[in-house]
């Protein structure tokens, strides 16, 4: 059964992967492999956060306010073009997705893919707003859920995604465990997700 991560990864192959490669100064093969390693990590981290009701509600608020209705192509163009906005603030999004685990996430991607630390950091910052736009589209359309646009639906969707990533193992599952299943110092809490909602919320 294809996961959300698989679906998004497929959409980022070809031209998008080539654009990432040019931006990062790597080959398209390296780019495709790095995207394939980073997406499960981002999706799994969001799944862990959304397993908490308040975390799911805060994330839903962020998706509804600033990411609903955005297509991946336009977000990709903005990210690659360096356009700064709340929707494409990859550094801000990453800080709230991973909390204190962000350095571990970047180091894990670098080690797993052979990228430099700076390239791994840039890759995650480029992917983070794309993941948010993709999730907003899935949640707002309802997908296979009965309660489209609800925090419960989002929590269920991402919780199932995290379980599938872990069950499949491989590079994505291994990275997810290495980054998130450590001590509390790097663990994302409800407070971080509330900040995520605040960061993207309109006043």
TrEMBL record:
InterPro entries: DUF937, EF_Hand_1_Ca_BS
Domain of life: Bacteria
Protein name stated in the entry: DUF937 domain-containing protein
Taxonomic classification: Bacteria, Pseudomonadati, Pseudomonadota, Gammaproteobacteria, Lysobacterales
């Amino acid at each position: 059964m294809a996961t959300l991560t698989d679906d998004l990864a497929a959409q980022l192959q070809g031209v998008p992967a080539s654009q990432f490669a040019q931006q990062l100064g790597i080959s398209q093969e390296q780019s495709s492999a790095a995207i394939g390693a980073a997406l499960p990590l981002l999706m799994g981290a969001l799944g862990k956060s959304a397993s908490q009701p308040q975390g799911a509600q805060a994330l839903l608020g962020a998706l509804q306010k600033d990411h609903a209705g955005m297509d991946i192509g336009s977000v990709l163009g903005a990210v690659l073009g360096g356009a700064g906005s709340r929707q494409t603030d990859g550094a801000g999004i990453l800080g709230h997705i991973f909390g204190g685990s962000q350095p571990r996430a970047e180091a894990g991607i670098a080690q797993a893919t052979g990228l430099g630390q700076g390239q791994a950091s840039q890759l995650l910052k480029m992917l983070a707003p794309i993941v948010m736009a993709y999730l907003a589209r899935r949640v707002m359309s309802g997908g296979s859920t009965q309660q489209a646009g609800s925090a419960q639906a989002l929590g269920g969707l991402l919780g199932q995604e995290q379980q599938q990533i872990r069950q499949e193992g491989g590079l994505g599952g291994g990275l997810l465990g290495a980054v998130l299943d450590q001590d509390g110092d790097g663990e994302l809490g409800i407070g971080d997700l509330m900040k995520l909602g605040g960061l993207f919320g309109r006043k």
